[in-house]
User: Fold this.
Amino acid sequence: MPAMNEETRKFQKELNAGTTALVLLSVLDQAKEPMYGYQIARLIEANSEDMPIMKQGALYPVLRALESTSLLESEVEPSVSGPPRRYYRITDSGRQTLEKWKDIWTRTKTLVDTILRGEE
Amino acid sequence: MPAMNEETRKFQKELNAGTTALVLLSVLDQAKEPMYGYQIARLIEANSEDMPIMKQGALYPVLRALESTSLLESEVEPSVSGPPRRYYRITDSGRQTLEKWKDIWTRTKTLVDTILRGEE
Assistant:
């Protein structure tokens, strides 16, 4: 991505604040097993085409925030290859919340795209 | 919209923070003449289907923020029917920024929708 000015950096950051939480809930909703941060980051990166827009470091505070409001829960497990890993899974409350957030996302997208397209 | 819990309110607020600025730049980019806040709010509302997600009161601080970074400029004009009105127009810098933001919006949408759809 070309160099960004201050306003564009702020725009990207604000847009990511909401969408990162949505993406994390969705990834863990679809996961067959609990996942740790780096695993989630790699999965998101694999879906990010050429230019990553959600940086790995930005995921961890959001994972912790989602756990603090009981939308996720986690457990630390030892790892053979390094420090222990924190594995996250979605809770029932997280699943219910995800459904509402998907609806809000769809309606926001529709509004923004209608405006961007302009009046016919 | 049904009653929202605290997390969902936060999600909606974060999502709106970025998209409101994008929508305002786009509306003023397409406007043939400078527009005042209430006019812009009504245009957005007219495009909002049944459930408004960008509240009028939330637009004003964003208009001011966009002006403070020179993406918009404004002029106060007297009004026959009430207090003077502040009319906003987009600047050249605002137009250039809008193009970048549209690109970021498109890439964010693609990523989020790819994740929500899940891996095939």
Q: What stands out?
A: Chain A touches chain B through 46 residues (CB under 8 Å). Residues 42 and 105 of chain A are 23 Å apart (CA to CA). The longest helix of chain A spans residues 92-117. The beta strands of chain A are 35-36, 72-77, 85-90.
